[in-house]
Structures are given as C-alpha cells and as structure tokens.
Design a protein that fits this description.
This protein is α+β, with helices and mostly antiparallel strands and 227 residues long. It has three domains: 53 residues; 82 residues, no CATH class; 43 residues, no CATH class. Helices cover 39% and strands 9% of the residues. The strands form two sheets. A four-stranded antiparallel sheet has the order 5-4-3-6, with no helix packed on it. Strands 1-2 form a two-stranded antiparallel sheet. Helix 1 crosses helix 2. The chain is elongated.
Length: 227
C-alpha cells in the first residue's frame, strides 16, 4: 500500500514563483555538515558536476552565495582588495608575456600608470584605498599618464600621436560616406580589410613597445606593482 509523505518546497517570491530544486537545500546542508561540496555530492549520491551545476544555478537565481556566505574570498586580509588583485594581475601579466615587468624595482621594465588625483572618485582617498576606488568606484578616467618601457606615451590623458592615429579614419570615413557625414564618425569595416584605426594602433605598438630596463622609477603616484 502506498503512503503519502509531506515535503517542503521552496519558491522564489514574485509572480513567476520559480521553484528551487529541493536538492539544492539538501546539498547546502550536507556541505555544511561534511565540509565541502564534493563530500556533499557523495553523501547525496550525485555526481560532483551535477551538484556543482545545481548550486551554481541557484546562486545565480538568488544572487547570493550559498556555499560560502562571503565576498572577496580570494583577497588577503592583510591587504586592500584592489591592491591585492592588481598585484596578482601585474605579476601574472609579466609571466604571461615573459617580460621583466609587474613591479617597480631595479632591473624591471618601467611600464607604469599614474592615477589622476583630480578624478572626483579618487579625491581624498588614502593610499590603501585608492586602488579600490579606481577599480571598483565610479571612475570615468582614473589614469592620467602612462609609461611604456621607460617612455611616456600618455600625458595628461592625451596621446602625442592621437591626431595622427585618428586622421586616416577621418579621411576614410569621408571617402566612404561622402562629405555630408560628420568627420570623426566611426567608419564601417569592409570585409577582409583591416580598419585604418586598427592598422595605425598596430603600427604604433610595433614602433613604441620595446624592451627597456631601467634602474628605478621617479617618485609619484605610480602603479606598476604595489606588492
């Protein structure tokens, strides 16, 4: 003889009333009990990939972490989040391109950016908080200057070859669309052709990005690596 069993069902608030898979609740409870999602999957008799997909889908739907109720879990507690993440990016970038970059130190290539102290979102920020504000804050233009290989390529937010780079695009746009089209409007890409702006940028990078070892960097609000 069959019997009835009552179960608790979870639904999200709102008109749609989307149901939450009951296995998610079980997995979260088992993970808290056994210490990991892998152990929870074994206890629930589910493949790990299925368990991970169920929990990840529920987290996206709810907009909330379920396994670990914390944010910035990869950050170190002894460093601000922005500083820690930028340090990882700088070091990882140096390894990826096999260049002596990623730190402000003797013998390293001077690839630097200078943050704009006049940017409203960066104003009055402490040294510890300025990278957090630049990365996560509502900055429009946080970078003022940029140096590549010991040579300034952007000063006060302007590139010295800005006009030369944009001029071919203006000329191509005028030829393609006629004189009635405003100069400076984006030119359409032609099949099989490289956009003039892309070509100019590629040529500029080839001319200007070279190895240059330096013995140090001048003082200032520079960002290379803050580790």
């Amino acid at each position: 003889m069959r019997s009835l069993h009552a179960t608790i069902g979870w639904r999200l608030s709102g008109r749609a009333g989307e149901a939450l898979d009951p296995r998610v609740v079980e997995l979260v409870a088992l993970a808290a009990q056994h210490g990991s999602l892998a152990a929870a999957a074994r206890a629930a008799g589910l493949p790990y990939r299925t368990a991970w997909a169920l929990v990840a889908g529920a987290e996206r739907t709810l907009g909330q972490r379920l396994m670990l109720l914390e944010r910035n879990v990869l950050a170190r507690h002894d460093l601000p989040v922005g500083r820690f993440l930028y340090g990882l990016a700088a070091a990882g970038g140096a390894r990826a391109i096999a260049q002596p970059t990623g730190a402000i130190a003797p013998g390293r290539r001077a690839d630097l950016v200078v943050l704009d102290a006049d940017e409203p979102a960066l104003a009055a920020q402490s040294v510890d908080d300025i990278l957090d504000a630049a990365i996560f804050g509502p900055c429009r233009r946080p970078v003022r200057d940029a140096m590549v290989g010991g040579r300034w390529v952007v000063r006060e937010g302007r590139h010295p070859e800005e006009r030369a780079v944009l001029a071919p695009l203006d000329d191509d746009d005028a030829r393609s669309h006629g004189a009635d089209r405003p100069r400076g409007a984006t030119a359409s890409r032609r099949s099989g052709a490289i956009d003039p702006l892309d070509r100019q940028l590629v040529d500029w990078v080839a001319r200007n990005v070279r190895r240059a070892e330096v013995g140090g960097a001048r003082p200032g609000v520079h960002v290379g690596s803050l580790a």
